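WARN retry 2 of 3 for item q-0093 after timeout on previous attempt; input resubmitted unchanged.
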Amino acid sequence: MSLSSSISNALSGLSVSSRAAHLVSSNLANAMNENYSRQEIELGSSREGGATIAGVSRVVDTALLADGRSARAGMELSSGRADGARALEDIIGTPDDPSSLPAHVNRFDAALRFLEGDPGSRIRLQEVASSASALSNSLGAAQASIQSQRLSADRQISQEIKVLNASLEQIVKLNGQILSANVNGRDTNVLLDQRQSLVDQVSALVPVREMPRAHGAVSLVSATGMMLLESTAVAIEFTRTNQILPHMTLEDGQLGGISIDGEQVSTTAENGPFAGGRLQALFEIRDEMAPKAQDKIDAFALDLAVRFQDIPADGSIGVGDPGLFTDSSARAEFATQTGLAGRLLLNANVDPQVGGEPWRLRSGLNAGTEGAPGTATLIANMISSLSNHAPDAGSIFDHAVSLTSFSAQLTSNHERQESFSSAQFEQMTQLKLQNGVDTDAELQKLLVIETNYAANARVLQAIDEMFDTLMRMN
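OK item q-0093 returned
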C-alpha cells in the first residue's frame, strides 16, 4: 500500500470516528428525551479504500411505535372517563359523606321525627324547615356542578381541537421539509423526531395510523379509516358553547359537534372518526355521562316532591297546588322533570327565609291560621311519605342510596379500565425505551471510537516519521 493510500485511509478513519463520537454525544445528551430516537452511523467503503459514512439511521421499531400510540389513546380515553366519573361521585357524594344526598335525607327525616315528639316547638319547626331547605339546595348545587362539568368538557374540546388542527398543520410543514431534505441529500433525523412527537400528540386525542409516502413523507388516517392528513390536513371545526343547561343536547342542535371540511361527523359512535382517544372521553362526559347523572337527580327531585303532594292529612292543599317541595313555586310534574333538581324549592308558605311560617308544617301548608300546637297528624304523614315505596324507586332512602351507588359503580368500572389501560401503556413505554439510549452501551462505543481514533492518528504519525526519514536520506 502506498503512503498516499495510507494517509487517505487514516484520514477517512479519523473523519468516521469524529462523526461517530458526535452521534454518541447526541445520544447521551438525549438519553432522557422520550421523543428522541437513538441514532447509529452506517459505514461503507470507498473505491479508493478507507471508510465512508453511508448514512445515519434512526433506531425505530415502527410496529412497536404504532402499538404504543394505540395504547396511549386507550389510556387517554379510560383516564378521561375515570376523571369524569370521579367528578360525578364527588358531586353526588358517598353514603358516609355528611354533605351527600343520603345524609341530607337522613337529617330531614330525623328533624321530622324530632318534631313529632313536640309539634309545638318553634325550634323544632325551624329545624325541619332548615333541613328541608338544605335538602333542596343540595340538589340545586349538584345540578350546578354537573352542568359546570359539562361546560368544562366543552371548553376542553374546543382547546383540544385547536391543538389538533395546529399539530396537523405542523406535520404538513415537516413533511415538506423532510421531502426537500431527502431530495437534496440532507440529514432528516431531527425533523423526523419532531414529526414523531407531533404524531404522538395527535394520537393521544384521536388514534391514528401513519402511512408512509414518497421521500419520507407520511399520511395520517384515523383508526376508523378517515383520512386526516395527506398532502394537506383536513379542517376540523367545533363551536364552543358559552352556557350549558340541563335540557341542552347535541341531538337538538344546542351543543356544538365536530365537522370535517364542513361535513358533520359523529362524536358518539364507537366507530366514529374521533373514537378511541381523549376527545371521545370529553364528548362522553358532556353528552352521556353527566346528562345521565342529571336525569337521575331530576328523578330523585320529582320523587321527593311527589311524596309531599296531596298528603291526606293536609286539607289546605287544593287540586293542583304544590306540596312541601315546589318546582319554582309550582307543582312538580313528570312532564317538566328535566332540570327540576335546580328548580326545587321549599314551599314559600313554610320557609322563614322568604317570610313563610314553619307552623304550617303541622297546621297545613296553605293554612291561614295556626292550629293546635299539639297536633302531629300531618307530621306523621310526612314521615310516612318518606318511607313509602314508590314504583321502581322504593323509599326515598332507597332512592338516595341508589344515586350514590350509581356514581360509585360508575367510578369503580372506569377506574378498573383505567388501571388496565395504564398498565398496557406502561408496558409499551418500557418496550420502546429498550430501543432507546443505553448510556452504558454508548460509553462503550465511545471507548471503541477513542481507540480507533488513536489508531488512525498513530498511522498518520508513523507516515509523518517516514517522510521525515526519507527527507533526511535525500
